Write the structure tokens for this entry.
Amino acid sequence: MASRLIGIVLYYDDDDDDDDALVLGRVGAGAPEACTRPCPAACSCGLGERGCWVRCDRAGLLRVPPEFPGQAASIDLDRNGLRFLGERAFGTLPSLRRLSLRHNNLSFITPGAFRGLARLAELRLAHNGDLRYLHARTFAALGRLRRLDLAACRLFSLPERLLAGLPALRELAAPGNLFGRVPGALRGLANLTHARLERGRIEAVAAGSLLGLGRLRALSLQANRVGTVHAGAFRPCGALEHLLLNDNRLAELPAGAFRGLGRLRALHLGGNALGRVARAWFTDLAELELLYLDRNRIAFVEEGAFQNLSGLLALHLNGNRLTALAWAAFQPGFFLGRLFLFRNPWRCDCRLEWLRAWMEGSGRVAEVPCASPGSVAGLDLSRVAFGRASDGLCVDPEELNLSASSAGPSPEPVATTVSRFSSLLSKLLAPRAPVEEAANTTMGLVNASLALPSRAVGGSGRSTQFLLGSSLLLSAAQHMLFVLQTSGACHPGVAQTGLASGG
């Protein structure tokens, strides 16, 4: 018997679990024939590192082949036209570890269809959109199944007892279905570590819906319709490390929403309708490293909201309605991670001075564009300067600009300058008149400045010289008025400067 033994091959399933048992496969002279005979006509068969494989994908099959190699460890029937699985559809295959039936047209699976596959560890039924319903005993006799893929089967529900006979199940992938609530079939799966239930119609996470999931490490409920999370709903999942609740309809969370999740490392709450961040939400999350609160409607963060998150590596607050963020939100802890704050209408006043200083010191904050006040709108907070009053207190950029603009006298408008100059000339050119004439109206004074008095005609030489001088002065004044008006219209600054120097 020893002379017929050529070698020993160690191969194992594709699970990455530490407690997987190695499988010893005896490879003798007849092993290759045992893998290729009988091989279905439309399929290809071969021997690989993990045992005998059978590939029947894209073969146009409308029914399961009647016979497979007895040593088959992996069978791929993806992308065919299979519609129905009868009882013991695959016969007895004691070595089969992996079976894939994705992208078929399955509409019904007979209870007991997988009997005879006692060592099956991975079953893929994803993208069978007509399946819609599974019998409670569909997976009977699969006591060693560890991975089950039911993605995009458009299932409305899972029978309560569907997974009860799968004590070894560790990974359940069921995204893209039509569940209205967290399936009760999950309760009591003591060895389940990963559950994917995203892209469905789940509306709430109720207290008690996750009972018995003490080893669950990752739960995805993203892209559902979750609007309510009951207090303590996740408490049975004490080993949870990754929780995805993003892209739902959450507008509020109870104080004890994440109670008991002391090992949680990543929490995704982005893409909801949260209007604030409460201090009571994250009190138990001492190990949290990643917190996503992006794409909400958050306008206010309570004091101490992040104070217990001493291990936080990144906080995402981008895409909200924040105008201010107080340092008191992080105290008494000291946040050393990265802050993502872009796409918020920030008001860059003294309430953000601490953030400006922290940006300079740590370099872990980028893109904080100012929306107000107007003096710094459009600038990044990193470029905003904060002044100091005499008592050492911060002065807002808006107040700094007001102080600078009021440091000197304001220039008078050009129209005011021309008017005052005209009035001055009128008074200089007006002849000395009796008191009763001087009491005329303002219009009379203006007319007197523009027309010579008739009683001066025919006077002495002194009067003639006065008239000549007045005429010359009047011409010069009119020319000066024209220049001032023209300069004021084209170059307002020149007229204002001229007034300042002339005064």
